[in-house]
């Protein structure tokens, strides 16, 4: 966080405790694995308790669960049915009113409704603030209509009275979330009734017969869903959002009186009483969940749910208590974020909200915000995530599963969203090749060839000491002043230190593979093999670097020897002498960010360029924002694709001035301080398709 925060502002400090001290400490015991981590991603996935997991383990290790379709398995079937009852009583209803269809999650429940709802030419209407999985239902309806939030409040506040004869059998389906997964807004459950009373027919020329699908995936995790009071036709939920475990399990609840609006076409194992193979004949099972649960249900996961319900009881936790507790935490955080200002008076956080967190009836426990710098610029989400993680706070960042709300709150133009969608873009500013390992780089102007072992000529040579081990700048600081120059017209490699220089052939001589000058060395524990480049250059190196017995090795080109060999060992030897993977990338903006944090007195010689050189990257990319590189999985340099393989952890090597070989405390000290000792800086990339001719060029666009 910026250091210039105004501290004299009175921060809201009013805390309301919902749980008693004993209860709170019992709860804390169940999550001892969190240690000091502050987990704030319960809307993404909540955490399972330790006792809950232990009970599941005991249950599964002591009982014999078998496939519920095997007739000998009444035990499993009963266990599953008991869970159906528990689910129903959890949402205050009974098997007379609702059926539970187990699904792989809320998304699957939504999809099932999309596939089976008899629209009969009717409309799919949905609130703009909806999960992506709801938008996917559009494929199944012939018409769809998005309702803006304000419009929904207007239209759904008064029921209509349409002439039922005009309906033509069209079925309309209205889908909305009980709680927004974006801003935590709770939408009125009274809408269920007004929709039933045809309020939406105000919007359509021909009246339709309306049903409601309530997406309760987000709501049910921290609220009491009360199906006694409100009776949507269909409800989707995911259990990991309520109990943390098991994942991959959700449910579609169907109001029994609305079952006939659904028609199942596909039938899978377990859903039919009888089916013929040659003729198109089958008799579905009579009970709706039996028809809808295709294949073998996830019976072990379903049985495990019981322990989720039980643990709430053990801890005396009711949904209402959870609701109030999480609301209070959110309210407290909201108030504090609102209050925080930079010293120039500008707000630190921009919050996206519909309510002012005044009532648990209209607001759930989700807070959505952006952070801003004193000059009003946004802090990118990668940076926020990075620092939250460093400080033991687990957050959710990005804008993924609710496109409508993203557009609404961030006031994004849909066309722009389409153009940019979550793409990280940048420009390749510099390409550096390090022909001799640990020596000065060659800055590439224009394009450079990629080979199967990295950039052409990158780390093809290395200097070894009298015992044959590769030397680095840690041992000989002056190495960075050794400048290799590739002279392609004369096919020579020239080495230069100050005014002294020496040349040798760029490619090994024809007879070089004779055993005489073939030798082994080690780079960071990995064995590498190479050819000795002779006495003349060895003596020159020793004289100019001031160490006895140095020799130059050129790495073997293993292509001929290892073609067709794909063992991991083979691949390792194929890698050039670079430390880890083939390419190291740094983001210029992250370096700039670091430089801005170095104390003035130490900044004297630390130009941005000097800092960039110390990180010894192959590619320097300008991503326009710091830290975005840390989250990329795939990078495209023009059309050449690279894969993320790891983060680069830094050591005192970055303290060596690459022009002079002198050592300083910075930038390591600041890096360590700012990143709490976790010195990740830069990412390693590798390429999958190593066949073909590829070139990479400075100035090319980079997409992640
Ligand atoms: C999480 C969520 C979903 C999707 O749930 P899955 O478990 O990913 O299938 C749908 N709607 C809302 C409101 C959610 O919060």
Write up this protein.
- The protein has 704 residues and is of the alpha+beta class.
- It contains 21 helices and 32 strands.
- A 7-stranded mixed beta sheet has the order 2-8-7-6-5-3-4, sandwiched between helices. The protein has a 7-stranded mixed β-barrel with strand order 15-27-26-30-29-28-32.
- A hairpin with a 2-residue loop joins β23 (518-523) and β24.
- The chain is elongated and about 100 Å long.
- Residues 1-12 and 559-574 have low confidence and may be disordered.
- The protein binds pyridoxal-5'-phosphate.
- Pyridoxal-5'-phosphate is lined by residues 105-107, 131, 133, 177, 181, 215, 217-218, 238, 250.
- The site of pyridoxal-5'-phosphate has 12 residues, from α4.
- GO terms for molecular function: lyase activity; molybdenum cofactor sulfurtransferase activity; molybdenum ion binding; pyridoxal phosphate binding.
- InterPro entries: Aminotrans_V_dom (IPR000192), MoCF_Sase_C (IPR005302), MoCo_sulfurase (IPR028886), MOCOS_middle (IPR005303), PyrdxlP-dep_Trfase (IPR015424), PyrdxlP-dep_Trfase_major (IPR015421), Pyrv_Knase-like_insert_dom_sf (IPR011037).
- The active site is at residue 401.
- The modification N6-(pyridoxal phosphate)lysine is found at residue 241.
- It is an enzyme of class 2 (transferase).
